[in-house]
Design goal:
The chain is α+β, with helices and mostly antiparallel strands and 271 residues long. Helices cover 34% and strands 21% of the residues. Strand 9 and strand 10 form a beta hairpin. Helix 3 packs across helix 4. The longest helix has 16 residues.
C-alpha cells in the first residue's frame, strides 16, 4: 500500500486514498460549513457510515508516528477523526495539513508526538487533557453523575497485550508513570447506568459518550457520539459487533444495560 510521510510538522503516516477521502469530505461538508457545531459533527460522523471497523490501526509503525486513516476505524479513532475534521473546517484555511495538526493536538499529550507514552491511551486521560485544552467539557456531574475513583493500571497489568510494552521495560515504566499521574487526579465523573434513561433528554446531540466499565484497571471500554433520532437517544460509533460505523439500534440506556461490564457513561460536550 502506497503511503506518504509529509515533510512539514506534524509528520504523519497516511495513504493516497486518505488524501482522496479528505478531499471528498471537504466537498461534502462545504454546504454545512456555516452551520452549528453539532450539525457539523453529525454530518461529519454520518459521512463515514458503513466504513469498516478495524482494530489496532495505529500500531502499524515501530516508532510513534501520527497515523492518519480515513478508510477504517476503531471506536477511538472514529471519534478523534470526526472531532479533528470539524475543528479543521471551522478554521479560515482548511487543508490536509490543518487536519493533521488538529488530530495530533487531540490524540497526544500537549499535542506533541513524543513516543508511545505520549499518546492518550486511557479515555478518561484523553477527556482530561482535551478538557484542559478547552476542546471538550465533561458534563456528567450536571446530569446527575458521580465520581469514579478506581485505580487505573490496565495497560501495565496486561503488558503482553500491547505490542510496544511486551518486551520494552523502559516504555512500560513510562506507561506506569502515566497511570500514576491519572490516579493522582482523584478519579473522573460519570453517569451511572441506572440514571441514563432519566437524563437522556438532557444529553446533547453529538456529545461524546464514553462507556465506563467494571473491568479491573480500566476506565472506559467504548466511545461514540450521542445521536438523537426523533424522541430516541442512541449513538453513532465504530462497532466491533457490526464491523462498521453505524447508528446503533439500541438506546444509550438499553445498550449500557445490556453490557454486563458497563457501569455507565461519561458525557462530554464538544466545544
Amino acid at each position: 500500500m502506497a503511503a506518504g510521510l509529509i515533510s512539514a510538522q506534524p509528520k504523519a503516516y497516511f495513504t493516497f486514498e486518505d488524501r482522496q477521502i479528505f478531499n471528498q469530505y471537504l466537498s461534502y461538508i462545504e454546504p454545512f460549513k456555516n452551520h452549528s457545531g453539532d450539525v457539523l459533527l453529525e454530518k461529519t460522523a454520518t459521512f463515514f457510515l458503513g466504513k469498516p471497523y478495524v482494530a489496532n490501526t495505529l500500531e502499524i509503525k515501530d516508532g510513534e508516528t501520527l497515523v492518519v486513516n480515513l478508510r477504517e476505524f476503531d471506536c477511538t479513532t472514529f471519534v478523534e477523526t470526526v472531532i479533528a475534521l470539524v475543528r479543521s473546517v471551522q478554521m479560515e484555511n482548511t487543508s490536509f495539513e490543518t487536519y493533521l495538526a488538529e488530530l495530533q493536538k487531540i490524540r497526544y499529550r500537549d499535542g506533541v508526538t513524543d513516543g508511545y507514552a505520549s499518546r492518550l491511551h486511557y479515555t478518561s486521560d484523553w477527556v482530561y487533557e482535551n478538557e484542559r485544552n478547552e476542546r471538550v467539557h465533561n458534563i456528567s456531574v450536571g446530569l446527575g453523575g458521580v465520581m469514579e475513583e478506581k485505580t487505573i493500571n490496565y495497560m501495565s497489568a496486561h503488558r503482553a497485550a500491547y505490542k510496544h510494552l511486551k518486551t520494552d521495560d523502559v516504555m512500560l515504566q513510562e506507561i506506569v508513570a502515566v497511570e500514576m499521574e491519572i490516579n493522582r487526579r482523584g478519579g473522573f465523573a460519570y453517569l451511572p447506568k441506572i440514571k441514563i434513561a432519566h437524563a437522556a433528554p438532557l444529553i446533547p446531540h453529538m456529545s461524546l459518550i464514553c462507556f465506563t466499565t467494571n473491568i479491573e484497571g480500566l476506565d472506559i471500554s467504548h466511545v461514540g457520539f450521542a445521536y438523537k433520532k426523533e424522541d430516541k437517544l442512541t449513538f453513532i460509533h465504530a462497532s466491533s459487533a457490526w464491523n462498521k460505523v453505524i447508528v446503533d439500534e439500541h438506546t444509550l440506556s438499553d445498550y449500557c444495560g445490556g453490557q454486563k461490564s458497563c457501569t455507565g457513561i461519561l458525557v462530554a460536550e464538544i466545544m
